[in-house]
């Protein structure tokens, strides 16, 4: 297929290059370089961990059976059952080998052999194919990358970009015109990694995605419908994700936890469950990286990982209501409904009512071992990541988050409720630490603070602060007045604590970076005509350039029509 390169712009990101037409025919967003870099970093760590787990499993089975030949010649029932499932996959695609990822000792895809096959990756919504090309060219040890799209123009662009990137891309990346949902359903447990990065909500893809991942494989999922997830349209969020959002300062973290709860819900329908390794809120979207496992017994723990959230409408107090609990007796474990309610009808701090949201994922959203490995890999290969500064800053902040504390407080909001001057973050953190509790920042909000201190302790600290920094009298029915009317039970100690600054803060490591350029955010869906109302998204210069191009095209068409009419009239 011949083409004129003058009609295209060459865009280079990492080691991949793509050809983009001047028209908005295939979706591409420069801002997503952060997303792609983070995904490559996680994928590298996944391949490394996968190899370590496979070697550990081989070693364990060799010790158990006495030799590696016994492992291969005497497969257990699990191996036989999985062989059958792989044979079913081979009937559908005879030219491809089944995926044989081995992750947990009790959950393994395929026979355990000495050599682990390279992981197969599915990019379910590929558009230009840039992400798939970067995976193939930059991630060592990766296997086949399958890029799907339901748009014919996008598939043509992806195939053009594959050829443009040379032999490595041609040998590893294949592009197909297909509905991602149907493709994933017809290829169950075939991919070690499934990457979902849709324009908007991923909810319609989740059911088929959790079935397409091998046992112990990785599901990467992005959601960009933040207005829905953050409480702008609560009823829409409930219809898409099965959770009701609350509009608090923690809404972006709650969005992460709603997405995780939704993925877990879809996985549970197939006796599967998820283990989050990294969950990130960046720019205008949330991105989660989860391992998917199969276990009917482990799936029973799901209610222990989910909670409803009670948010006071008067102050910043929030409380979590776990859905389930367990009771252990000897060696048996019973699963029971959670004790309720965790809050009275009215807030014990200010006397106002509660809004209820959820259910959300209340278990840890990161695996700190993974985060440490990913960050170390990123720092060791900093020249390989175009967005190194941003992703290293985010990973550094995540590495210092308290893992077992869902959601967070905003110090400015606490002070706004009391109408008082704000203590510095160091002073407030010191008071919490001196009271015997833990506190950390959060990657979601530079002003957010995570703490395992209960709300009555937080308000006692603020009452002590107001005693030293008096406020003007407020109406008695205001939440701040009700809170300050009570005497503090805890006498706060504001002396500077050693751990009041994190290691990154102490070393003055940048953790929250500004956007590298203006209009750094979401872009128009592919195929939409650019008009003057899109200046806020694309910038005045870009919009004017596109409008001028459109005017030129219209003038050329008009002249062509006039010439043809003149020819017809003369004849």
Give the structure's gist in a few sentences.
With 571 residues, the chain is of the alpha+beta class. Helices cover 41% and strands 19% of the residues.
Note the main attributes of this structure:
single chain, about 575 residues, alpha+beta, Phenylalanyl-tRNA Synthetase, Chain B, domain 1, 7-stranded mixed beta sheet, 20 helices, 19 strands
Low-confidence stretches: 68-112
The shape, in one word, is globular
Main sheet characteristics: 7 strands, mixed
- Superfamily (CATH H level) name of the domain at 120-295 and 363-388: Vaccinia Virus protein VP39
SS field, number of helical segments: 20
Distance between the termini: 37 Å
CATH class of the domain at 120-295 and 363-388 reads Alpha Beta
Instruction: Provide mean pLDDT, rounded.
Output: 85
- CATH architectural type of the domain at 120-295 and 363-388: 3-Layer(aba) Sandwich
What is the tally of beta strands? 19
The side-by-side strand order for the widest beta sheet comes to: 7-6-5-8-9-11-10
């Amino acid at each position: 297929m011949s083409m004129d390169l003058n009609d295209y712009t060459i865009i280079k990101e990492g080691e991949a290059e793509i050809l983009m037409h001047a028209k908005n025919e295939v979706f591409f967003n420069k801002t997503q370089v952060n997303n792609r870099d983070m995904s490559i970093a996680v994928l590298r760590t996944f391949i490394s961990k996968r190899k370590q787990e496979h070697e550990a499993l081989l070693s364990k089975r060799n010790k158990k059976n006495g030799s590696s030949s016994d492992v291969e010649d005497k497969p257990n029932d699990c191996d036989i059952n999985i062989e059958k499932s792989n044979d079913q996959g081979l009937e559908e695609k005879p030219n491809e080998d089944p995926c044989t990822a081995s992750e947990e000792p009790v959950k393994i895809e395929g026979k355990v052999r000495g050599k682990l096959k390279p992981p197969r990756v599915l990019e379910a919504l590929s558009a230009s194919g840039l992400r798939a090309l970067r995976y193939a060219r930059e991630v060592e040890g990766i296997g086949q990358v399958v890029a799907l799209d339901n748009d014919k123009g996008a598939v043509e662009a992806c195939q053009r970009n594959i050829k443009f990137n040379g032999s490595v891309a041609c040998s590893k990346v294949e592009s197909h015109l297909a509905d991602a949902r149907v493709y994933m359903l017809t290829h169950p447990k075939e991919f070690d990694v499934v990457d979902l990065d849709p324009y908007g909500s991923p909810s319609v893809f989740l059911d088929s995605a959790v079935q397409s991942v091998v046992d112990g494989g990785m599901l990467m999922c992005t959601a960009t419908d933040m207005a829905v997830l953050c409480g702008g349209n609560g009823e829409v969020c409930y219809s898409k994700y099965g959770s009701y959002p609350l509009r608090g300062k923690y809404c972006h973290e709650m969005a992460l936890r709603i997405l995780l709860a939704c993925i877990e819900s879809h996985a549970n329908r197939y006796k599967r469950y998820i283990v989050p390794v990294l969950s990130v809120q960046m720019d205008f979207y949330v991105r989660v990286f989860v391992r998917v496992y199969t276990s009917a017994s482990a799936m029973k723990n799901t209610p222990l990982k989910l909670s409803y959230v009670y948010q006071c409408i008067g102050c910043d107090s929030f409380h979590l209501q776990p859905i389930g609990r367990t009771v252990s007796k000897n060696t048996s474990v019973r699963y029971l409904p959670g004790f309720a309610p965790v809050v009275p009808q009215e807030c014990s701090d200010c006397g106002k009512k509660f809004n209820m949201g959820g259910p959300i994922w209340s278990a840890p959203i990161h695996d700190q071992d993974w985060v440490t490995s990913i960050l170390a890999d990123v720092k060791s290969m900093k020249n390989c990541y175009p967005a190194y500064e941003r992703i290293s800053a985010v990973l550094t902040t995540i590495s210092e988050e308290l893992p077992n504390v869902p959601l967070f407080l905003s110090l400015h909001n606490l002070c706004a409720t009391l109408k008082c001057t704000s203590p510095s973050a160091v002073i407030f953190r010191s008071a919490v630490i001196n009271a015997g509790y833990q506190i950390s920042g959060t990657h979601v909000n530079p002003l957010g603070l995570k703490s395992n201190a209960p709300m009555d302790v937080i308000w006692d600290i603020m009452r002590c602060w107001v005693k030293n920094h008096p406020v003007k009298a407020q109406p008695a029915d205001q939440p701040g007045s009700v809170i300050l009317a009570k005497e503090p039970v805890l006498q706060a100690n504001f002396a500077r604590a050693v751990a009041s600054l994190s290691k990154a803060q102490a070393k003055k490591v940048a953790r929250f970076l500004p956007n590298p350029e203006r209009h750094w955010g979401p872009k128009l869906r592919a195929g939409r005509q650019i008009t003057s109302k899109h200046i806020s998204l694309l910038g005045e210069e870009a919009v004017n350039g596109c409008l001028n191009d459109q005017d030129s095209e219209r003038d050329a068409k008009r002249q062509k029509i006039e010439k043809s009419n003149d020819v017809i009239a003369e004849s």
